[in-house]
């Protein structure tokens, strides 16, 4: 190390870009030649301020980020869900879907093609047939949901959740499939869509209870926030314990923590 | 939970596991925030620009490849966000903006020491504002201990040696401007 070399290395030193060996050489050289240190003193104010700690952003930034991420996931999921949907169905699924369409078509054809005077008896008869067709359609759609929910592909499971939207009511098996997705699915988009699907059946006390219990099982901040928001909408008192349990977790995300605290206050 | 590499996480985001971006955000939010804050000293603006960076990461996730290095790619996006903002607001930027900047007094220091520190911080902030956006960026990136000149070069689109030369020039100019301000 000499004076010239030191001057050349000094900006790297200021920026913390020298190796350990170079740093030791610099320190030792400056101890021997304090006059050189004096020459470099004009760098001191810059060095001191540049080497100050990094600033830390606010919790508000975290909250805004997770909200945006959540919105993005919600916007993306239905799009990827419907795109090219028919073409991606397996033949046997196409069969179920085609049956739904055929049964409805047959029943409607019967209704509109019936000839002659419309008697009271024929109207009752047609109504019964239509009702039976609707029930059969519902049953087939339920089967489709349950089958798709078990598929290894996340996009297929999202299709199951999309089919759920078309159901007026859900059987216990559908509810069970939805909770399986909410609590065990490896894909967060599926878990989020399951929250939305289950929110349709919150009149059912079993669904409400299942949603409350799910809060502590979730690890994704997005799902935790979605569930907290749903609990606020439902004003679900029973969720407070679950949210408090989640708050006690040492690795809880800062934005989730803030959201849960707000949610508990709103529910109380 | 956090054992996945940046590359693995970003590839998962690209494959549709969008919530994995949360882990990358937690790893790099302070870096990206300071990338903007150290040159603008505007808390709100810096936080907004951080959001823009991560939303652009989502928007352009399809362009990320297995060979990409996440930090380099992320800072390239951050630079684009910075330049876009700078271009849009160039007309409105003037020294009057600096007057709106507030400075915190660090607790635990004596008043005089705090005042001296605040004064040097204020001068440094003013000096940084007088540099070109490229010079501000190279200083902030080089200041990041975790980034070698090779990585700074990859972000800036130049060689390792060129990045070092740019950093030296920018730092020397910063020192000159600082001294001028100090002596006025």
Describe the structure.
The complex is a heterodimer of chains A (268) and B (184). By secondary structure, chain A is an all-alpha fold. Helices cover 74% and strands 0% of the residues of chain A. In chain A, helix 7 (120-149) runs parallel beside helix 9 (172-184). The N and C termini of chain A lie far apart (69 Å). Chain B has two domains: 1-93, RNA polymerase sigma factor, region 2, helix turn helix motif (Rna Polymerase Sigma Factor, Chain: A, Orthogonal Bundle); 110-184, Arc Repressor Mutant, subunit A. The interface between A and B is large, with 41 and 44 residues.
Supply the key terms:
heterodimer, A: 268 residues, mainly alpha, 14 helices, 74% helix, elongated, B: 184 residues, Rna Polymerase Sigma Factor, Chain: A, Arc Repressor Mutant, subunit A, 2 domains, 9 helices
Give a short overview:
Chain A contains 14 helices and no strands.
Distance between the termini of chain B: 54 Å
Q: Percentage of helical residues of chain B?
A: over 70%
Number of helices of chain B: 9
Structural class of chain B: mainly alpha
Give helix and strand order of chain B, one letter per element, not per position.
Answer: HHHHHHHHH
What is the mean pLDDT of chain A?
A: 82
**Rg over C-alpha atoms of chain B, rounded to the nearest angstrom:** 18 Å
For the largest beta-sheet of chain A, the strand count, sense and barrel status come to: none
Give start-end ranges of low-pLDDT stretches of chain A: 80-88
CATH architecture of the largest domain in chain B: Orthogonal Bundle
Instruction: Give the full name of the CATH homologous superfamily of the largest domain in chain B.
Output: RNA polymerase sigma factor, region 2, helix turn helix motif
Strand proportion of chain A, as a percent range, falls in: under 5%
Percent of residues in helices of chain A comes to over 70%
Helix/strand structural class of chain A: mainly alpha
What is the overall silhouette of chain B? globular
CATH class of the largest domain in chain B: Mainly Alpha
